[in-house]
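User: Can you recover a sequence for this backbone? Please restate the input before giving your answer.

Assistant: Of course. Working from this structure:
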């Protein structure tokens, strides 16, 4: 029942346009970021992440990624500044990754991918009544993208990887209170920004993308834990390891890529 898109040969990114024609639209994401082509813009200031009073609720496997959801009933945790006209509320964060030894980020930088990419999804509650409504509006969402590169263990990522066993199968979820994603931010918030879309169906062209230049460092062991997850449900006959859940870069078309700080 419902739409059955995925990341496989038959139902993957190259097939999404049949059910979601906007896949061939003019502001699709991700893109290949070419730093030399990113324009500085004096009207672009720093971004501010006000996550101190954030309330994480649960961690879940939605069959496409692992998602941590937040209480978004008020402006307790928001992103503001930068290209945004008002605060956007934190709704959830999730990751994209590949199979061992491959690049699993969605955005690439001068043609080079990172091991993984973290997306912190925020919505424009000042203008729209619900996340679903905002997700279909051109200025409805703001997604903060953070690259993950391989190196030493990340000192706080274990709080997430230790919980993955509870959400191994599609449709599973578990309480996940007291997690503040501030611990997943790099030391500086210099960024690229452009107008784009959701990188998964329904691919709505509703996202103001803010991609941080500085990656965070995680270990191969930690990233490998994500591959214990399954795309498939507990009852499904064939096991499908959750990996390669990334969309490749899409045409920039007539868009302007801007940056804050060299
Ligand atoms: N990879 S990404 O950061 O671009 C991203 C992907 C998915 C989502 C997300 O939460 N949803 C996409 C829309 N869907 C719900 C929905 C809303 C309106 C209409 C139909 C369905 C949930 C957010 C960000
Ligand atoms: Zn994403």
């Amino acid at each position: 029942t419902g739409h059955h898109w995925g990341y496989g040969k038959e139902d993957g990114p190259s097939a999404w346009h049949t059910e979601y024609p906007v896949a061939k639209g003019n502001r699709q994401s991700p893109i290949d970021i070419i730093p030399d082509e990113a324009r500085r813009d004096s009207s672009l200031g720093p971004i501010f992440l006000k996550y101190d009073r954030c309330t994480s609720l649960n961690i879940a496997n939605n069959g496409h990624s692992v998602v941590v959801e937040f209480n978004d009933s008020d402006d307790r945790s928001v992103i503001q500044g930068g290209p945004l006209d008002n605060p956007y509320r934190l709704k959830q964060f999730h990751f994209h990754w590949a199979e061992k030894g491959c690049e699993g980020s969605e955005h690439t930088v001068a043609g080079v991918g990172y091991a993984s990419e973290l997306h912190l999804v925020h919505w424009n509650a000042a203008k729209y009544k619900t996340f679903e409504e905002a997700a279909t509006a051109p200025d409805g969402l703001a997604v903060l993208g953070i690259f993950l590169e391989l190196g030493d263990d990340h000192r706080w990522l274990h709080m997430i990887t230790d919980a993955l066993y509870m959400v191994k199968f599609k449709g599973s979820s578990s309480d996940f209170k007291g997690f503040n994603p501030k611990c997943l931010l790099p030391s500086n918030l210099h960024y690229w920004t452009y107008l784009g879309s959701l990188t998964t169906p329904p691919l709505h062209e509703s996202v103001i993308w803010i991609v941080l230049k500085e990656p965070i460092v995680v270990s191969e062991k930690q990233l490998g834990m994500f591959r214990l997850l399954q795309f498939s449900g507990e009852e499904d006959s064939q096991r499908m390891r959750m990996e390669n859940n990334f969309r490749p870069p899409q045409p920039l078309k007539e868009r302007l890529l801007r940056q804050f700080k060299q």
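That completes the design. Residues 94, 96, 119, 199 surround zinc ion (ligand 2) (CB under 6 Å).
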